[in-house]
Specification:
The chain is mostly helical. It contains five helices and no strands.
Length: about 170
């Protein structure tokens, strides 16, 4: 029995088209009209794959930028939550010597439209990463202070306040 080259082409086209477009794509039957339709779908598949390969580096760079921006947002949330706790007794914390920047409000930046080249996106990502690192450190300090204060007994808090006042007057 001889192999039919058109049947082999048809089977290969069906396999590639279904793999790319999914099983729901209408294939038709084994005739010249449907074979031409499959060839057009295969050309579209090939063009889609070329376009995807060309845009992959930009997509990956944008993904990295997105993750860095999420770090900024998570750090902002931690800062905001810790500040809410501290602001309830702000005067006590100021007397205790909590730094003024613990109470300074931070605003999440509004992200402008990004560039379209990988290099520009990576540069923006580096700048955003520096902000994320700065805010994560700040959040760690504020949360650490707030947690330490929350664990203190009333006597320990009073002692801390007395020592902070004594330190200021030089006793």
């Amino acid at each position: 029995m001889y192999a039919n080259p058109q049947k082999n082409e048809y089977d290969a086209l069906v396999a590639r088209v279904r793999k790319h477009f999914g099983g729901s794509v209408e294939i038709g039957g084994y005739n010249s009209h449907d074979l031409n339709k499959l060839r057009k779908l295969d050309q579209q598949r090939e063009a889609d794959e070329v376009r995807e390969r060309a845009t992959r580096p930009v997509t990956e760079a944008l993904t990295r930028l997105h993750h860095t921006r999420q770090r900024v947002h998570r750090a902002w949330e931690k800062i905001s939550e810790a500040q809410k706790v501290l602001l309830k007794d702000r005067r006590l914390h100021e007397i205790n010597g909590a730094p003024a920047h613990f109470f300074e409000k931070v605003e999440v930046p509004t992200w402008e439209a990004h560039s379209s080249t990988v290099e520009e996106i990576d540069t923006l990502n580096e700048e955003t990463a520096m902000l994320a690192t700065k805010w994560e450190a700040r959040a760690g300090k504020i949360v650490g202070y707030a947690n330490e204060w929350a664990r203190m007994t009333a006597e320990e808090r009073n002692r801390s306040l007395i020592l902070a006042l004594a330190d200021r007057v030089g006793v």
